[in-house]
Specification:
Elements (H helix, E strand, L loop, with lengths): L5 E5 L6 E5 L7 E2 L6 E2 L7 E2 L2 E5 L6 E5 L34 H6 L14
Antiparallel strand pairs: 1-2, 1-5, 3-4, 6-7
The structure holds zinc ion (2 copies).
């Protein structure tokens, strides 16, 4: 597993996304577009596209790298297949007091957090 080997650093100047290998962190890196200095601080990096999924069987949280999302991801704890296809199925759901727990709290998807944060 080498999924954390690179991070996306967004250029503070031109907003271009630069892919920085982990071993380049702490070294000077420049934006590939405008050549501005990039902050090679892991804390400033966005992780590569990945999805957090809760296992529907055991409830364990799994981090699924974007490239694997269609390749069939399994729960790291119990080995169940994760329902990754649901990530791409728009599901307008009516949430009421009766099903709030099942639909939101036990949802395998990150409810309301389903977006890239622009930090
Ligand atoms: Zn730039
Ligand atoms: Zn599981």
């Amino acid at each position: 597993m080498n999924d954390n080997s690179a991070h996306i650093i967004r250029c503070p100047q031109c907003q271009a996304a630069n892919r920085i290998p982990a071993d380049r962190f702490g070294m000077a890196a420049k934006c590939g577009k405008c050549h501005a200095q990039l902050p090679t601080d892991p804390a400033a990096a966005e992780p590569e596209a990945s999805y957090k999924m809760r296992c529907t069987e055991c409830g364990a949280k799994n981090r699924v790298p974007g490239p694997k999302i269609n390749a069939g991801a399994k729960c790291g704890k119990c080995g169940s297949m994760l329902k990754t296809e649901e990530l791409f199925t728009p599901q307008p759901i009516m949430v009421s007091d009766g099903n709030f727990e099942n639909m939101v709290l036990k949802s395998p998807l990150p409810v309301l957090m389903w977006a890239w944060a622009p930090w």
